[in-house]
Structure formats: C-alpha cells, structure tokens
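note to self — DONT lose this again. spent like an hour looking for the file last time. sequence + predicted structure for the chain T wanted, 56 res
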Amino acid sequence: MATSKFSTNLIKLKCAVCNRLNYYSRKNKKLVTRKVEYKKFCKGCRKHTSHKEAKR
C-alpha cells in the first residue's frame, strides 16, 4: 500500500490550557526543527488560546 506524502508531515496541535487535541496541521520537518505554536480557538475553553505541537 502506498503512503501519502502528507501523512509523514502531519502533526497534532494541543491546547496549552485544557490539553485537548483540537487540530491537525502539516509542517516541513526538514526546514522547521522547532515545535510550532499557533493561536487558535479551543472548543473546550471556548476562547482563543495557544496550541502547541503534541508528541505522536
């Protein structure tokens, strides 16, 4: 079975406040070595919080 080129670059984004996994995103792991952090809306907190890259 062939693997997708996007599945290897997929990361999970976890809320920093309530620790819920809310989003999935992609990143180029060759160019970006640090953990990414975005401000996104959390459904659990019901407000915009920072979401950090979670472990696999």
